[in-house]
Amino acid sequence: MRPSAARLLNILVPVKRAVDYAVKIRVNPQQTGIDLNVKHSMNPFDEIAVEEAVRIRERLKEAVKSIKVVTIGPPKSAETLRTALAMGADSAIHVEIPESDPSPEPLGVAKTLKALIERQKEGVDIVILGKQAIDDDAGQTGQMLAGLMGWSQATFASKVVVDAENKVANVTREIDGGLQELKCRLPVVVTTDLRLNEPRYASLPNIMKAKKKPIEKLLAADLGVDLTPRLETIKVEEPPKRVGGGKVENVDELLAKLKDAGITAIKRA
Amino acid sequence: MLSLRHAIRPVASRCARRWAHNIPSFSHLNAVTEEDLAQFSKILAPTSILSTLPPNSTSPDDLASYNEDWMGKYHGQANTVLRPRTTQQVSEIVKWCAKRRIGIVPQGGNTGLVGGGISLQKEIVLSLGAMSKVRSFDPVSVLYRRVKYGYPTPGILVADAGCILESLSEYIAPHNHIMPLDLGAKGSCQIGGNISTNAGGLRLLRYGSLHGTVLGLEVVLPDGTILDQLSTLRKDNTGYDLKQLFIGGEGTLGVVTGVSILTPPAPQASNNIFLALPHFDNVLPLYQTVKRQLGEIMSAFEYIDRTAYDMGLSHGLGPVLNADEVGNSQCFVLVETSGGNQTHDEEKLTGLLESLLSADKPLINTGVLSQSPSQFASLWAFREGLTECCQKEGKPYKYDVSVPLADFQKVVDAIRERMISKGLYGDHAISKVMGYGHVGDGNLHMNVIAKHGYRPELEEALEPFIYELVASHKGSVSAEHGIGSMKTHALHYSKSDVSIELMRKIKQVIDPLNIMNPGKVLP
After folding, report:
1. Chain B partners of A44 at a C-beta cutoff of 8 Å?
2. Are strands B134-138 and B124-127 parallel, antiparallel or unpaired?
3. Most C-beta atoms within 10 A of its C-beta, which of B75, B330, B391, B480?
4. Smallest CA–CA separation between B85 and chain A, in Å?
5. For residue B140, what pLDDT is reported?
6. What domain of life is recorded for the organism (chain A) (predicted)?
7. Which of B275, B322, B371 sits opposite A83 (nearest CB)?
């Protein structure tokens, strides 16, 4: 499909470095949060977002000019950017925050992304990110960003088809009642759901290429954004432990125990 | 008092055709009677006795999981299964069985692949599954206290034989230790069984065999005596090292009831890479290059041939590699690294990958590197899932052999050729011949898939052909799976008559009544 006379598409993929989903979570002794001294990796929904961006380019070919990934986090977050570059992104932006700072909140992230988008000389046509991060499960950033930018939004996407010629994205959303199809004018914010795709492993040739791809470093202050948290976490605790069951010797004992628990039989009509 | 041993088949009967289900007569053994059950009831709780004999009400179906092996290849005949909870109970059971000449088949997780845990005729199954407590574990962190009170080395796990391997891994994980062995059956296999078969697995390359990592054993001997050598000493050269007889003894010399094993510290950094090789001949040079460049951090080197890889993909394992980049790759390799420092390991890995990709004649077509713990786990899941895929393809004939690395492909191809020449290759009989395994240990797992089930003519075509082929390469007919009941007649392909005769003598001394797992290991 030949790109239209208007400029080509630029895709921005925000990613977050979160505790790896395979890790057993433990609450810290002070009950202020979880033990973060564990393995971290890219938020799985953001992995799906990077994969989708790469697939969009595989489908549209030269119509996609650039795929940029961005993360807001401590120095270690750069690893996540390298993974995204190895999956096929072209360049990366790291908005670095000090190691000791708390994790930024969705509104802060959305404002930072807005400032970044406005800085992009070539503009941004599609922002695609995970529907939620698996550490806070907030699920707000994409929607807030669309609101701040005044852009269309299509969340919980299970299928994305971009029509570069007509500058439209047809997105299928997973909702409680089933599937909903939206036709969105670009620019658009899309958030990914689990069934959108299965992310690829980083292949060795791409890992080698990724080392040469640029990572731009910025501070939130450079973008004029204040990431001070607005929410205070008061307490974090584990859910109550499951009380063990008991064994009974026979059906009569089972019935007696059910009666004790206040469960009575329903008379059949 | 010596009783008659069952007749020794002369070694020269290597021409005799043996079916997998050829059951010996065990004329020296007695069947279980109600009187025996009454005696067992005095030793064990009622829930520890499963029998189809009256007054017990167990149906044969309930005994199925003890009588059928994991592959569905061997069908046992036991009418009684005992599940003791303590070593003392095991001792009393064995004493009674010795008195009554009742055969005993010790059984762990029943995941063995050579019919070693199956009752061949009328032996009872002695299941260790109910003895599953960890007795003690001293992580490195309590070294000071232990040293102060004169206790020996830390990092040692003492456990009942019935503990499931994966449960033990999970038990010691919070203390940052790992088990020295790992295999696909980890969710079901028990440590006692692992020891009795000298299980190898995916980590042997790095941590060595159980002969080195097991420090002590508690064993109930065939006359009921309890041999307590459950030491936690790292070094103890006082007399013959008896435990080595039971490690790999496949339950023919006694019942392992307790284990003391050294657990290595968990690696701080783990990575793995999955590589596609254009030609099988690249495996050896690749192994040498990887070993040289990764050095001490290499912890596994697994081989998967093209047939196995395609089979895995077709059953939903992966996808792992981009199909275009794979092209006509003949085989694949999974390499794991385990080290103390993530940055150091990554540098070594990246250095290796750069040299592999930029070589004039690259040894690999492509590959992937895991970027997160979840990807690490799923790359391993591909390799570990192959065994289950074989079961989905049909009934596999498994040949676990040690042959020189350079001959792996030749052996697999020779078997395929053989089946083709016999008109037994195709969807009507043998649908696939494949090989995968622990290349780093020279151990190849060959799987010959019988699409519609085991048939005598298939076995005839395969055996003794495969054993003779392996013997011609001076290899082992059983690298890690053991002999069980499957390969008793093939023992002579890898061990001399002198060796076998000495093994018989040892068996005669320790188990003169031949009640302990009769019909296994020795022909």
Report:
1. 374
2. unpaired
3. B480
4. 19
5. 62
6. Eukaryota
7. B371
Residue A248 lies in a domain: no
Nearest CB to B368 within list A44, A204, A211: A204
Beta bridge partner(s), residue B124 = B104
Is residue A254 a part of any domain in this protein? no
Mean pLDDT over A147-174 rounds to 95
pLDDT digits (tens, 9 = 90+) for B241-296: 999 999 999 999 999 999 999 999 888 889 999 999 999 999 999 999 999 999 88
Assess A27–B contact: CB distance below 8 Å, yes or no: no
In whole angstroms, what is the distance from residue A91 CA to residue B371 CA?
A: 18
Are A41 and B372 inside 8 Å of each other by CB?
yes
Buried-exposed string B35-59: b where 16+ CB fall within 10 A, e elsewhere: ebbebbeebbeeebbbbbeeebeee
Tokens of B256: 């392992």
DSSP 8-state secondary structure symbol assigned to residue B398: E
Q: Residues of A6-41 as b/e, b for ≥16 C-beta within 10 angstroms?
A: eeebbbbbbbbbbbbeebeeeeeeeeeeeeeeeebb
Shortest alpha-carbon distance between residue B402 and chain A (Å):
31
DSSP string covering B21-54 = T-----TT-B---HHHHHHHHHHS-GGGEEESST
Helix (H) or strand (E) holding B396: strand B395-402
Of A135-139, B143-147, B233-237, where does the model show the most confidence? Answer: A135-139
The DSSP symbol for B169 reads: H
Closest CA to A83 of A215, A192, A219, A216: A215
CATH code assigned at A150: 3.40.50.620
Residue A28 lies in a domain: yes
Q: Provide the domain count of chain A.
A: 1
- Alpha-carbon distance of B176 to B198, in angstroms, equals 24
A–B interface: beta-carbon pairs under 8 A: 60
C-alpha A82/C-alpha A211 separation (Å) is: 8
Complex ipTM value: 0.75
What DSSP line would sit under chain A, residue for residue?
Answer: -PPPSSPPEEEEEE--EEE-TTSPP-B-TTSSSB---S-EEE-HHHHHHHHHHHHHHHHHGGGEEEEEEEEEE-GGGHHHHHHHHHHT--EEEEEE--TTSPPPPHHHHHHHHHHHHHH-TT--SEEEEESS-TTT----HHHHHHHHHT-EEEEEEEEEEEETTTTEEEEEEEETTEEEEEEEESSEEEEE-GGG--PPPEEHHHHHHHTTS-EEEEEGGGGT-----S-------PPPPPPP----SSHHHHHHHHHHTT--PPPP-
Q: Most distant CA pair in chain A: distance in Å?
A: 81
Is position A217 within any domain?
yes
* DSSP secondary structure, B61-116, as one string: HHHHHHHB-TTS--B---SEEE--SSHHHHHHHHHHHHHHTB-EEEESSS--SSS-
Scanning every residue of chain A, which has its alpha carbon at the shortest distance from the alpha carbon of B270? A39
CB spacing of A201 vs B373 below 8 angstroms: no
Instruction: Give me the residue label for tokens 């807001």.
Output: A72
Least confident of A5-19, B16-30, B67-81: B16-30
